[in-house]
Amino acid sequence: MSTFSIFLVLITIVCFLLIVVIMVQNPKGGGLSSTIGGSQMLGGVQKTTDFLDKSTWTLATILIVLILFSSLSFTGTLSDTDSKIIDNTTTTAPVAPVQNTPAATNPAK
To answer: Which of 1, 18, 13 is nearest to 73 (CA)?
Structure first.
């Protein structure tokens, strides 16, 4: 398994977790915070909101770092010198041979 494939799997996992954390939040104050009910459970509504906010920023930062590292670890199979397209465009088509035909001579009158 290549390094790029490992980064791809990690990016996919972080994206899934980021989607879950964002979907739990509700921009209107609902979401997970409102379903907890009171301040007695899990440290209160404010603690839950802080946790979701920090986890969103943390996962987003991890995602950006993984994307940057994956682009650094990516080694393409073709480089500029090994490109098939460049090889095809640099070759010239064979030129048709020029046929030497004698010039038509018209006798002067």
So the answer is: 1
The pairs formed by 27-35 with CB atoms below 8 angstroms and a separation of 24 or more are: none
69 or 81: which leads in pLDDT: 69
Residues contacting 86, CB < 8 A, separation 6+: 80
Quick check: pTM over 0.85? no
Around Cβ 81, how many Cβ atoms within 10 Å?
7
Amino acid at 48: T
What ranges in the chain are assigned the alpha helix state H? 3-24, 31-36, 44-73, 84-90
Nearby residues of 55 by Cβ (< 8 Å), 6 or more positions away: 21
Residue spans of the domains in the chain: they are 1-27+49-73
